[in-house]
Design goal:
The protein is of the alpha/beta class and 253 residues long. The protein has a single domain, classed as Stationary-phase Survival Protein Sure Homolog, Chain: A (3-Layer(aba) Sandwich). The longest helix is centred in the middle third of the chain and has 17 residues.
Length: 253
């Protein structure tokens, strides 16, 4: 397969390197690489940018080596530019990650990692977002990479149009992780803002680390991670109406 790799943590992310090494190491019985790997990733961290795109100014590409590029834009820019300016055709698969930290439940709305996978799916490309669901300095990616390499063909077969596969797993070296189907949990965020007035007349506002509450749900990705499993889910890419279907076509007032 021709596989495009990206992320939202930036081109120098350890998680991206782990993903590159994993896919590149997959060989057939004759020692030939199974996959052609392309990398287009943001030049700097773009966490929390969701599905943002660079508009009304150029996104800049830098070639870093064979089949590897950095982009000044967002993860979504990387997917669009890779197809139109680098590969000149759709890749067979997009994998976005491995993200530093979880993309569980409502996190999916904010995640640049998931934004890239969503953009690929909108273009009809099978897509996987993969995240290491832990908050620590030295994440262990081996558990996730071994799961991915052992099951890549089967994971691609799970993909359905208008969706992307969202995977979260623990930080561990264990190669014996079990994966379970999950639904996105619900997060409640308690934001924390610090502000100060600058001498230039602006008030500077910094969104700092706040708190998060996770609504209990035995079938959620949150629950699976808390039990040491890999959480796998198919996430729909299109918005859904929340009103009753029987109201469709009727006048509102």
């Amino acid at each position: 397969m021709r596989i495009l790799l990206t992320n939202d943590d930036g081109i120098q992310s350890d998680g991206l390197f782990a993903l590159i090494d994993t896919i590149a190491a997959m060989k057939d019985f004759n020692g030939k690489s199974l996959h052609q790997v392309w990398v287009v990733a943001p030049e700097h961290e773009r966490s929390g940018v969701s599905h943002a795109m660079t508009l009304k100014k150029p996104a800049k590409l830098r070639r870093l080596g064979d089949s590897r590029y950095s982009c000044s834009g967002t993860p979504v820019d990387c997917i669009i530019i890779a197809g139109l300016a680098i590969l000149h055709e759709k890749p067979d698969l997009v994998i976005s990650g491995i993200n530093r930290g979880p993309n569980l439940g409502t996190d999916i709305v904010y995640s640049g990692t998931c934004g890239a996978a969503r953009q690929a799916a909108l273009q009809g490309i099978p897509a996987i977002a993969i995240s290491c669901a832990a908050h620590c300095d030295n994440l262990e990616y081996e558990g996730l990479t071994s799961f991915l390499s052992a099951n890549l063909k089967e994971l691609v077969a799970l993909w359905k149009p208008d969706s992307f596969i969202n995977i979260n797993g623990p930080s561990t070296k264990s190669r014996d992780l079990k994966a379970v189907w999950t639904v996105p949990g619900k997060n409640k965020y308690i934001d924390n803002l610090k502000c100060f007035d600058g001498s230039d007349g602006y008030t500077y506002c910094f969104l700092t680390e706040g708190a998060e509450e996770r609504m209990p749900d035995a079938l959620s990705d949150h629950q699976a991670i808390s039990q040491g499993y890999i959480a796998v889910g198919l996430v729909e890419v299109h918005p859904r109406a929340f009103h009753e279907p029987s109201l469709n076509g009727q006048f509102v007032f």
